[in-house]
């Protein structure tokens, strides 16, 4: 049996802004690939689901959602959820327009809404208002709130973790304390900067 407990002297640490930015960037990247794949299926019935995006999306979504996080922390308790989502949507439009203008100057803008009826400069379009609003709702409720609750248990070894040798005992007893985590006999584990993998 594997016994795992956090060292009493070391409190779990919240994710840094850089860690949260990384989570948000990956979330946005995956969502854009999934959305474009679903769009291709809805329009062309393409069962290959060829989702597309750009590496620029990592920077754009990570920064956009990190800003939404700061807005959420300031606005919660001050205005209702739907009003917050409306503000998030307006910010998303402003950020999409600004980042699109910058990338266009570099010849690197990966999107063009020119074929939509209510587009502005091909960089934003009113047809996406409802999808952006729904995305803002899901981002606050399912992504930002959960990410803010994540904690890292600081380790005493290297930044990328240390091996914990497998120890087996007849009674399943014994254990070794490593990086603020105690692992008992009967299983192997690997600690990676506070994340513990139990095989």
UniProtKB/TrEMBL annotation:
Q: Where in the cell is it found?
A: Membrane
Q: Which UniProt keywords apply?
A: Membrane, Transmembrane, Transmembrane helix
Q: What topology in the membrane does the UniProt record assign?
A: Multi-pass membrane protein
Which GO cellular component terms are attached? Answer: membrane
**Segments crossing the lipid bilayer:** 21-42, 54-73, 85-106, 118-139
Organism superkingdom:
Eukaryota
- Where would you say this protein principally sits, based on its record? membrane
Q: Name one Pfam family in it.
A: ABC_trans_CmpB
**What family classification does the UniProt entry report for this protein?**
Belongs to the TMEM229 family.
User: What is this protein's name?
Assistant: Transmembrane protein 229B
Q: Which organism is it from?
A: Muraenolepis orangiensis
Tell me the classification of the organism that encodes this protein: Eukaryota, Metazoa, Chordata, Craniata, Vertebrata
């Amino acid at each position: 049996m594997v016994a795992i407990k956090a060292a009493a002297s070391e409190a779990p640490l919240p994710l840094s802004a850089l860690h949260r930015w990384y989570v948000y960037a990956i979330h946005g990247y995956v969502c854009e690939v999934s959305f474009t794949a679903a769009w291709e299926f809805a329009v062309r019935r393409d069962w290959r689901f060829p989702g597309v995006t750009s590496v620029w999306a990592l920077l754009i979504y990570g920064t956009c959602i990190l800003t939404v996080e700061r807005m959420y922390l300031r606005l919660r308790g001050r205005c209702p959820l739907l009003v917050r989502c409306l503000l998030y949507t307006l910010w998303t439009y402003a950020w999409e327009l600004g980042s699109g203008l910058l990338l266009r100057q570099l010849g690197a803008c990966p999107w063009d809404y020119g074929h939509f009826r209510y587009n502005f400069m091909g960089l934003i379009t009113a047809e996406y208002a409802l999808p952006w609003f729904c995305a803002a709702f899901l981002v606050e409720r399912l992504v930002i709130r959960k990410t803010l609750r994540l904690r890292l248990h600081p380790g005493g070894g290297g930044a990328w973790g240390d091996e914990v040798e497998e120890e087996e005992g007849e009674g399943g007893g014994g254990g070794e304390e490593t990086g603020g985590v105690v692992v008992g006999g009967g299983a192997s584990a690997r600690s990676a900067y506070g994340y513990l993998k139990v095989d």
